Amino acid sequence: MGLFDRLGRVVRANLNDLVSKAEDPEKVLEQTIMDMGEDLIQLKQAFGQTLASQKRTEAQYKQALKDANTWEQRAKLALSKGEESLAREALVRKKSYTETATTLKEQLEQQSGQIETMRRNLTALESKISEAKTKKNMLIARSKAAKANEALQSTMNGLNTSGSMAAFERMENKVLDMEARSQAVGELGGSSLENQFAELEAGSGVEDELAMLKAQMTGSAEPQAALPEGETKDKVSSKDEVVDAELDDLRRQLDNL
Q: Residue ranges of region Disordered (predicted)?
């Protein structure tokens, strides 16, 4: 294969590809319907011309038959008058018109066949045009739907769905963290409040006990009144020692807290 042949094939292939890509179904279908309409117009014009020609041929055929009959009557008239040569001439004219009529009859038969064929073609073309118009509307609708679906698919393919889903997951986790922190803060707040009341209650008990101890100690430091009958100073001293021991034990316990 020569270089120019290969180059020509490549050029034709590229041109065909460009033409195929440039074809818009809607525009091509519209143009096809227009072309078929123009073909129908031309066929109707040809049909009209053929029909008119047939009518002229038919008129010529009838006229030829009429002329042949006229010259036949003249030949008879000439013979009746004894004009044999004149009758012969009339018969020659009759023969000429008869031959013309025969030729015209053949033409009429041919034209009749052509007209019948053209009539069938007209009917078939009109039917095809009607069918093509119906299919055109359907194909255009399908073409538009295909274009819309292709655009939708292109849009969806262009979306970063993985990134979007990852963003949703991040936001979901963030909301969960916020909810957890909120719950923890609520629990801490409640615990702190309970602890404060517990400390107050505990503090009240200690303060009350401390006040009681102070009262006892203050009472023991006041001047001793007269001893009840039957108690001696030794017994009183013994009780004081017991109280002092208890106070020392209480101080040790407080220091260990």
A: 214-257
Quote the CA–CA distance of 192 and 172 in Å, as a whole number. Answer: 30
Query: Is the separation of the CB atoms in 29 and 140 below 8 Å?
Result: yes
Q: How far separated are the first and last CA of the chain, in Å rounded?
A: 110
Residues 92 and 206 in one domain: no
- Tell me: the pLDDT tens digits for 38-62? 988 999 999 999 999 999 999 999 9
- CB neighbour class for 170 (10 Å; exposed up to 12, middle 13-18, buried from 19): exposed
Mean pLDDT on 190-216: 66
Whether 54 and 120 share a structural domain:
yes
User: Tell me, what DSSP letter sits at residue 228?
Assistant: P
| 90 falls within a domain | yes
Q: What is the SS3 assignment for 224?
A: coil
From CA 10, how far away is CA 6, in angstroms rounded? 6
**Three-state secondary-structure class, residue 155:** helix
